[in-house]
């Protein structure tokens, strides 16, 4: 099968086989038909609805002290602009803690309101947060324009690959895990589907894309082995975050948190693998085109030289990405003077981040030689066949 045909089949098959059935299965999700216990618990909670409102005026702003905490209380006149009570106007209080200017409301701002209907029939409105979806949309459009301006059609197809990846995560991974499937297995299948679709959409239906895909899938299997081994050796159970605690004691109490941790590591590795394998394959292909007479050994050596530089930069990038995402909690650990440094380092949260970095970095170390060897062998052989074919035709022409 030609690379283009293989890529088209992979794209179609993965999209249909792995995403569409998951949407149908999600409709039979046991959580959608909640148990009697969940239903009775829900009835005892205040009924809430969400609406949008616009701040028309700040009628009062006074200092206040609540439970020993200094704050400012704003009396805000709001008009509901979207929701069941559109057009309704009323006053409510908005507390602003210390220097938390993000909590302060201004005239003209749109906010998200939570309408609570209590069991006694009383209705109470609260400011949930500022309404930021339009701003997010404009920034997203700005990103699309940048992608097209600097990447052209390739930039747009890369965005399409991103959309497909998000679609697979939202309509395959999440419903499957919620339904009780093993998170690691689900994330491995999703990673396979994402790799097969996003690589071709971003880089086109070319043989070197197929070589990059093969390298990615081989290295992805290695990353799964590394993740399982590292997590087991480090005695991690996926309980290192507040979100995991909520899952463990909420409606998804049967979710395998260790599997969820492993699945997250695999998907995180995939994002870096795409970059390494495609860059390495493209570099070797271009080196080979520039010097078609290079031997396999020389081509592999040149590719590894490029790959070592790639490894050095990406390992640093990967570590900084994880540290940046965890910065607030790292600061919290720092100010907890009652915990010695070794206790902080031993905490499951920090250990999880360290293991994520180690698995991701180790995967990169495997990805470079694997993609280099495959590209040097497969792409060089392909060029040699083309060269021999042209030479043979030229000989018959004489």
Task: Offer a few descriptive terms.
398 residues; alpha+beta; OB fold (Dihydrolipoamide Acetyltransferase, E2P); 15% strand; disordered C terminus
Average pLDDT taken over every residue: 80
The number of helical elements comes to 11
Strand content: 5-15%
Give the low-confidence spans: 16-43, 387-398
The class by helix and strand makeup works out as alpha+beta
Gyration radius from CA atoms, angstroms? 27 Å
The dominant shape is: elongated
Share of helix among residues? 55-70%
Order of helices and strands: HHEEEEEHHHHHHHHH
How many distinct folded domains? 2
* Main β-sheet, spatial strand arrangement: 3-2-1-4-5
Q: Could you tell me the number of beta strands? A: 5
What can you see in these coordinates?
With 398 residues, the protein is α+β, with helices and mostly antiparallel strands. It folds into two domains: 47-133, OB fold (Dihydrolipoamide Acetyltransferase, E2P) (Beta Barrel), CATH 2.40.50; 153-397, no CATH class. It contains eleven helices and five strands; from the N terminus they run ααβββββααααααααα. It has helices at 3-26, 36-44, 133-178, 183-203, 207-233, 242-248, 257-290, 296-325, 327-335, 341-346, 348-397, and strands at 47-66, 69-82, 89-97, 110-117, 123-130. A five-stranded antiparallel beta sheet has the order 3-2-1-4-5, with no helix packed on it. α7 (257-290) packs parallel to α11. Mean pLDDT is 80; it is low at 16-43 and 387-398.
């Amino acid at each position: 099968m030609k690379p283009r045909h293989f890529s088209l089949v992979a794209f179609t098959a993965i999209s249909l086989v792995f995403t569409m059935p998951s949407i149908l299965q999600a409709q039979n999700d046991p959580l959608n038909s909640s148990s009697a216990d969940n239903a009775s618990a829900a009835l005892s909670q205040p009924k809430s609805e969400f609406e949008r409102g616009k701040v028309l005026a700040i009628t009062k702003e006074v200092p206040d002290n609540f439970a020993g905490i200094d704050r400012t209380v704003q009396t805000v006149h709001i008009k509901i602009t979207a929701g069941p009570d559109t057009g309704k106007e009323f006053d409510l209080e908005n507390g602003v803690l210390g220097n938390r200017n993000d909590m302060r409301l201004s005239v003209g701002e749109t906010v998200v309101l939570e309408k609570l209907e209590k069991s006694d029939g009383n209705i109470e409105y609260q400011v949930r947060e500022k309404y930021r979806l339009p701003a997010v949309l404009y920034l997203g459009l700005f990103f699309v324009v940048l992608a097209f301006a600097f990447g052209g059609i390739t930039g747009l197809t890369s965005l399409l690959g991103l959309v497909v990846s998000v679609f697979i995560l939202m309509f395959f991974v999440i419903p499957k895990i919620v339904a009780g499937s093993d998170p690691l297995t689900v994330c491995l299948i999703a990673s396979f589907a994402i790799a097969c679709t996003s690589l071709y959409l971003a880089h086109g239906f070319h043989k070197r894309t197929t070589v990059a895909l093969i390298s990615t899938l081989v290295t992805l299997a290695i990353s799964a082995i590394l993740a399982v081994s590292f997590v087991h050796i480090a005695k991690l159970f996926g309980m290192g975050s507040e979100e995991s605690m909520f899952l463990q004691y909420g409606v998804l109490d049967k979710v395998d948190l260790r599997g969820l941790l492993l699945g997250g590591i695999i998907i995180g590795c995939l994002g870096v693998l795409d970059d390494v394998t495609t860059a390495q394959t493209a570099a070797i292909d271009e080196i080979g085109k520039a010097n078609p007479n290079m031997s396999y050994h020389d081509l592999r050596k040149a590719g590894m030289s490029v790959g070592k530089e790639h490894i050095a930069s990406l390992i640093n990038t990967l570590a900084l990405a994880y540290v940046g995402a965890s910065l607030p909690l790292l600061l919290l650990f720092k100010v907890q003077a009652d915990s010695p440094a070794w206790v902080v380092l031993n905490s499951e949260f920090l250990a999880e981040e360290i293991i994520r970095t180690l698995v991701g970095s180790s995967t990169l170390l495997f990805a470079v030689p694997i993609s280099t060897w495959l590209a040097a062998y497969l792409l060089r052989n392909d060029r040699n066949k083309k060269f021999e074919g042209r030479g043979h035709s030229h000989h018959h022409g004489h």
